[in-house]
């Protein structure tokens, strides 16, 4: 069986190096160049019309076997001549990748340069002139990183992912990794180029949650996704990106969250179980930030602040017995113009500190103000 290669990042030179020790080849010329996901250079492998390699930004990372299986199965499908199949749904370029027999999907590839409002977006969205993404507070081209981050931060109940572990995450985010891929089946308005993006394992399913009433969702399944979405401040959860599978325990429906770059149903009004509360108590935003840095993504200050505050809210909320619905409501606006409670908390904290105050001092102010708000909410009959 053929297998995909691997690209790692030289920790000293900050340059890509193939796992066979040879220097990176660009357009047939032996040259070493800095790895830059914002600059995709036209290149073609010498002996093939396609390329697929995982991108490893830290040579200490050992990919789990499930990631390798996904990459190799995708590679075999391309090697057998099966073209990527572009989805007509959504706002970005999304490609279903086939197995070697062309009989089933094995993964989903989302190129960075085809994200909503990116330069090669195939859905006709306008190009972002200022770099801001479709959702306020996001940047064009960062969607792939966020997809991978959601998988990395979906820790198993027993703790964080070991470097080569295959244990399933608490919320069940499908295995996802950054890859580089060259193929004529992608959207190439100009020259054929290598595309960098997220590759996510395709999950067999029985449709999305749009196809079934929320009353049929097990409470446990709803709660596990609420923990993930609150913690990551997910701004794009809806029924269409929660898959429904009947492969859960005892044949019960299982929810699979995808697209991390649904409004909470009625079951979210029930309190978290003891097991879920223990999992939430184990979360540590600082360790998560360090983990993402280990995997090659140093969070911008604004993103790190969001993760710290949302994790703080989740942990403080469960200690006061708040339901997923109550905590989620704190993060959502009732109307477009009325700020959410979490926005009010952050704004009050910003107003209470002097300009140039350290991030630690600011977060301490958020901590104190959040306590006051949550105590009031916990004492209300609607919580």
TrEMBL record:
EC number(s) reported in the record: 2.7.1.67
InterPro entries: Kinase-like_dom_sf, P4KG1-8, PI3/4_kinase_cat_dom
Signal peptide (UniProt feature, chain positions): none
Keywords: ATP-binding, Kinase, Nucleotide-binding, Transferase
Domain of life from the UniProt record: Eukaryota
MF annotations from Gene Ontology: 1-phosphatidylinositol 4-kinase activity; ATP binding
Top EC group: transferase
Annotated ranges, domain PI3K/PI4K catalytic: 81-361
Family, as annotated: Belongs to the PI3/PI4-kinase family. Type II PI4K subfamily.
Name this polypeptide is given: 1-phosphatidylinositol 4-kinase
């Amino acid at each position: 069986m053929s297998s995909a290669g691997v690209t790692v990042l030289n920790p000293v030179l900050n340059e890509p190096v193939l796992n066979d020790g040879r220097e990176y080849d660009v357009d047939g010329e032996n040259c070493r160049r800095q790895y830059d996901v914002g600059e995709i250079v036209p290149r073609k492998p010498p002996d093939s019309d396609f390329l697929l390699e995982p991108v490893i930004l830290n040579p200490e990372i050992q990919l789990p076997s499930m990631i390798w299986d996904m990459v190799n199965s995708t590679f075999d499908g391309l090697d057998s001549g099966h073209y990527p199949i572009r989805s007509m749904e959504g706002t970005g370029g999304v490609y279903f990748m086939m197995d070697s027999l062309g009989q089933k999907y094995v993964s989903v590839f989302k190129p960075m340069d085809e994200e909503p409002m990116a330069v090669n977006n195939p859905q006709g969205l306008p190009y972002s002139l200022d770099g801001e993404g479709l959702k306020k507070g996001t940047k064009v081209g960062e969607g792939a990183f966020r997809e991978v981050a959601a998988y990395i931060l979906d820790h198993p109940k027993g703790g964080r992912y070991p470097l080569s572990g295959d244990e399933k995450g608490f919320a069940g985010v499908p295995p996802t990794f950054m890859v580089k891929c060259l193929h004529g089946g992608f959207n190439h308005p100009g020259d054929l180029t290598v595309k960098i993006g997220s590759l996510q394992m395709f999950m067999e399913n029985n449709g999305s949650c749009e196809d079934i009433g929320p009353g049929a969702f097990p409470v446990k399944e709803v709660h596990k996704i609420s923990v993930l979405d609150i913690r990551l401040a997910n701004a794009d959860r809806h029924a269409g990106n929660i898959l429904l599978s009947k492969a859960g325990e005892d044949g019960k429906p299982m929810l699979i969250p995808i697209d991390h770059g649904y409004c909470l149903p009625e079951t979210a009004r029930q309190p978290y179980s003891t097991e879920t509360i223990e999992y939430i108590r184990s979360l540590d935003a600082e360790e998560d930030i360090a983990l993402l840095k280990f995997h090659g993504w140093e969070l911008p200050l604004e993103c790190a602040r969001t993760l710290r505050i949302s994790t703080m809210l989740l942990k403080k909320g469960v200690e006061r017995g708040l339901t997923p619905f109550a905590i989620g409501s704190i993060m959502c606006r009732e109307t477009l113009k009325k700020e959410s409670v979490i926005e009010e908390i952050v704004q009050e904290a910003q107003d209470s500190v002097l300009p140039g105050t350290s991030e630690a001092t600011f977060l301490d102010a958020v901590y104190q103000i959040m306590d006051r708000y949550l105590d009031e909410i916990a004492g209300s009959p609607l919580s």
